[in-house]
Amino acid sequence: MTRRLAILVRHGDYLQRPNAPSALQPFPLTTTGESQAHAVGLEIAAFCKEENWHLAPVISCSRQLRSWQTAVILSKGLKSELNLPAVVEESEELAERSVGALANLTVEEIEAIIAADPRHETLPNGWKSSSDYRLPFQGAESLQEAGQRVSDYLVSQMAALKENAGTVAKVFVGHGASFRHAAHRLGVIDFDDIARLSMHHARPIVLEVNDKMSWRRVHGEWKNRYPDEPATD
Predict the structure, then answer these.
(1) Whole-number mean pLDDT of the chain?
(2) Alpha-carbon span 126 to 67, nearest angstrom
(3) In the chain, what percentage of residues exceed pLDDT 90?
């Protein structure tokens, strides 16, 4: 019987524009983020050795630079420690929640644009962290919609893994909010926990999925968010 594990990794620390919904920001990892990515590659390799996990050779990541860099750096640890021909493959399906035409603007800039547009009402309080709110601009999506997109991708990728006599695992590098909402869509965390939890930079959360596509967390810890801590990806 085959065990299937999805290893979810949030990208490392990066040069984020302050107070801007961070989905499509094009900036790279910081030096700290690079170190985090290197460490998580070694951490995952150690799991595989200790638990006899067979790691899929393709690492999936979003198309954002911070995610791709994290995947490339951690892949080097997998190659050196496991002699694995790790290949990084980008997918738009793993992106963070998109704010569409308002990408990379600050919260204040977005609110000013909405206020000046006669077609739209004033934004509701807490719109940025609301799971169900979608900005009224082309290409925007809600956090729940992003979570559904990511969860659909995880389901399809895990279902496609080849049968193995033991445990097969696959690494996905993406973003905190869309991963948390995906975990909710998969039944791993309750809706009320989405806002309470976050993800550590470049630390794995491992989810197991069975043949009936039922998911559960088997390794790794969510990060508890303080009440006044801003939500980031």
Answers:
(1) 93
(2) 26
(3) 87
**DSSP β-bridge partners for residue 99:** 140
55 pairs with which residues across the strands? 169
Q: What is the pTM of this model?
A: 0.95
State the Cα–Cα distance between residues 227 and 141, nearest whole angstrom. Answer: 25
Q: Which residue stretches of the chain are H helix? A: 31-51, 65-82, 107-116, 143-159, 176-185, 191-194
Length of the chain (residues): 233
Six token digits for residue 96: 């963070």
Q: What is the pLDDT of residues 63-106, one digit of tens each?
A: 999 999 999 999 999 999 998 888 999 999 999 999 999 999 99
Mean pLDDT, range 183-188, rounded to an integer: 98
| Cα–Cα distance for residue pair 22/201, rounded to 1 Å | 14
Q: Which residues contact 99 (CB under 8 A, 6 or more apart)?
A: 21, 23, 24, 105, 110, 135, 137, 139, 140
Q: How far is residue 97 from each of residues 66, 110, 168, measured CA to CA in Å?
A: 15, 15, 29
> Terminus-to-terminus CA distance in the chain, angstroms?
36
The model's confidence at residue 23, banded by pLDDT at 50, 70 and 90, is confident
